[in-house]
Specification:
The structure is a single chain. The chain is α+β, with helices and mostly antiparallel strands and about 240 residues long. It is about 40% helix and about 10% strand. The protein contains nine helices and six strands; from the N terminus they run αβαααββαβββαααα. A three-stranded antiparallel sheet has the order 1-3-2. A three-stranded antiparallel sheet has the order 5-4-6, covered by helices on one side. Helix 1 crosses helix 2, helix 1 packs across helix 4 and helix 8 packs across helix 9. The N terminus is likely disordered.
Length: about 240
């Protein structure tokens, strides 16, 4: 009787599963304080298994393995041999589509010289304008240095990552709740940044009835406002 041969793993699978590789990689990334070059991650995997990386992957690509197993839990940046990967926290997962479009544009659109920064409106409706000097920032607005805005020449994925970091740093410095910058339908209203300070002069002097009407409208997600209507009687009661 001929001995039964051990079947070889299918091409592209190898004897170490995608899940196993991703689990080890995740452990390595959890211990890193900054993004890890994909090449360095490969070297650490090779050291962990005591085998060459090509044997571990068996015709697979490490980036694709991580993407398939870890999905939105990892973020890649850079190109070619300079690709880096980092593990995202829950807070990091606030992505491009989560922020209000005006806020995202304020941190993603480059500031053109000779302007040195950007002013962002923090009451009623988000807005921003570029300024030549910090003294040009209107009362009640907040300043964003051009140094915080990602370079327009960066690859899109790197600009997006840099913009998210810039928003995080700006909110920490200006004492603004980042959750208040989310677009309609998220945790907070998309029309105003709740600050950890005294209310603006505009809000403080606004008639209570008008504030109630505005609060009622802003409580309805923007995309659903067209399907709602208010009677004149109710409006009259709110503002009188």
């Amino acid at each position: 009787m001929q001995p039964t041969a051990t079947p070889l793993p299918a091409v592209g699978e190898g004897d170490i599963s995608n899940a196993e590789i991703a689990a080890v990689a995740k452990g390595i990334l959890e211990g890193a304080s900054e993004p890890v070059l994909l090449a360095n991650l490969g070297s650490q995997l090779s050291k962990h298994y005591g085998r060459a990386l090509r044997e571990i992957l068996a015709n697979r690509k490490l980036k694709l393995v991580l993407q398939s197993e870890l999905g939105s839990n990892v973020e890649f940046s850079g190109e070619l041999s300079k690709v880096s990967v980092r593990l995202l926290s829950e807070e990091d997962k606030l992505n491009v589509g989560t922020y209000h479009p005006t806020i995202w544009a304020a941190f993603f659109k480059p500031v053109e010289p000779p302007k040195v920064g950007r002013a962002i409106k923090s009451s009623r409706r988000f807005d921003f304008r570029d300024v030549s000097d910090q003294s040009e920032v209107p009362t009640g607005w907040h300043y964003i240095s051009a140094k915080l805005i990602p370079d327009g020449s960066l690859p899109k994925v790197d600009r997006e990552a840099a913009a998210k970091i810039a928003i995080h740093e700006w909110c920490a410095r200006e004492d603004i709740e980042k959750s208040s910058l989310l677009k309609s339908g998220k945790k907070a209203s998309d029309s105003e940044i709740p600050l950890k300070s005294e209310p603006s002069h505009e809000a403080a002097t606004r008639p209570v009835g008008i504030s109630s009407l505005i609060a009622l409208i802003e409580a309805i997600p923007e995309e659903r406002r067209k399907s709602h209507s208010l009677s004149l009687d109710l409006i009259y009661q709110l503002i009188s």
